[in-house]
């Protein structure tokens, strides 16, 4: 899995470099001077560097957002990803039923137990990244989980530069963050990750991260500063799930 992701990224980089070199070689001779049979040599134009400022496609992803009504942000993030990659967005009740009938990989019992009412909390264990991967697999989607602690061993990079590369290549991302930091909430703690959401884009020109965040009514294409997102994401060691499938 990790080899596949990194191979794809490395191949894309190699292709871009090769394309640039071919373009330069086609217009310039040794020493950066173009050779023209029709006249004197002229200086080759400087190679054009793509000025990418938006990584990902938040506009396309926005239609797969749905607000959560239970303590099930991770389930809703999975549903969002399923919608983006398959075109079918599971309802909240549909994905809850799947989670209730699927054994957890990290604790006894099922991945999720629906509370009696939306205001009731679950057992407090939340949904682990490993179980998010199980739910994605139910819909035929494979992925990997990575963070700063595991990145060296798994070779799946994390952090903002890696996030931008994954988004640019069409991979879908679930990030574990501190919700209170994202929402700038006066209540609650800001030291630990307690929320899962989908990262749909990074706009480096405007310094904005685009999110599909089921935990707030304004979560469709929610936009926060890169600094705010990094602060919230860092609490979980830059934990994220990267899908192997892409939208390309």
Main attributes?
Cathepsin B, Chain A, 9 helices, 37% helix, 2 domains, globular, alpha+beta, seven-stranded antiparallel beta sheet, two-stranded antiparallel ribbon, 248 residues
What can you see in these coordinates?
By secondary structure, the chain is an alpha+beta fold. The protein has two domains: 1-50, no CATH class; 52-246, Cysteine proteinases (Cathepsin B, Chain A, Alpha-Beta Complex), CATH 3.90.70.10. The chain has helices at residues 2-27, 58-62, 73-86, 92-100, 129-138, 151-154, 160-168, 179-183, 226-234; strands at residues 33-34, 42-43, 54-56, 143-146, 171-177, 195-203, 208-212, 222-225, 240-246. The strands form two sheets. Strands 3, 4, 5, 6, 7, 8 and 9 form a seven-stranded antiparallel β-sheet that branches. The chain has a two-stranded antiparallel ribbon with strand order 1-2. Helix 3 packs parallel to helix 5 (129-138). Mean pLDDT is 83; it is low at 9-50.
Which helices and strands, and how do they pair?
Layout: H1 2-27, E1 33-34, E2 42-43, E3 54-56, H2 58-62, H3 73-86, H4 92-100, H5 129-138, E4 143-146, H6 151-154, H7 160-168, E5 171-177, H8 179-183, E6 195-203, E7 208-212, E8 222-225, H9 226-234, E9 240-246
Antiparallel strand pairs: 1-2, 3-6, 4-9, 5-6, 5-9, 6-7, 7-8
Number of helices: 9
Q: Per DSSP, what share of the residues sits in E-state strands of 2 or more residues?
A: 15-25%
Tell me the number of strands.
9
* Sheet having the most strands: 7 strands, antiparallel
Global morphology: globular
Number of structural domains: 2
């Amino acid at each position: 899995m990790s080899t596949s992701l990194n191979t794809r990224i490395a191949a894309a980089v190699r292709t871009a470099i090769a394309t640039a070199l071919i373009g330069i070689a086609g217009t310039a001779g040794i020493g950066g001077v173009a050779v023209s049979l029709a006249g004197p040599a002229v200086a080759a134009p400087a190679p054009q560097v793509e000025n990418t400022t938006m990584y990902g496609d938040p506009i396309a992803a926005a239609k797969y957002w749905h607000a959560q009504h239970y303590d099930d942000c991770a389930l809703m993030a999975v549903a969002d990803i399923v919608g983006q990659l398959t075109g079918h967005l599971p309802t909240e009740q549909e994905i809850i039923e799947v989670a209730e009938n699927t054994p957890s990989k990290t604790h006894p019992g099922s991945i999720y137990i629906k509370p009696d009412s939306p205001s009731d909390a679950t057992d407090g264990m939340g949904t682990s990244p490993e179980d998010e991967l199980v739910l994605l697999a139910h819909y035929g989607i494979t992925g990997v989980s990575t963070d700063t602690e595991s990145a060296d061993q798994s070779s799946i990079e994390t952090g903002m530069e890696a996030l931008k590369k994954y988004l640019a290549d069409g991979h879908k991302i679930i990030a574990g963050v501190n919700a209170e930091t994202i929402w700038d909430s006066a209540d609650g703690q800001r030291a630990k990750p307690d929320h899962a959401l989908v990262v749909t884009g990074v706009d480096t020109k405007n310094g904005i991260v685009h999110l599909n965040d089921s935990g707030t009514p304004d979560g469709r294409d929610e936009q926060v500063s890169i600094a705010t997102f990094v602060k919230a994401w860092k609490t979980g060691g830059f934990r994220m799930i990267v899908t192997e499938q892409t939208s390309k």
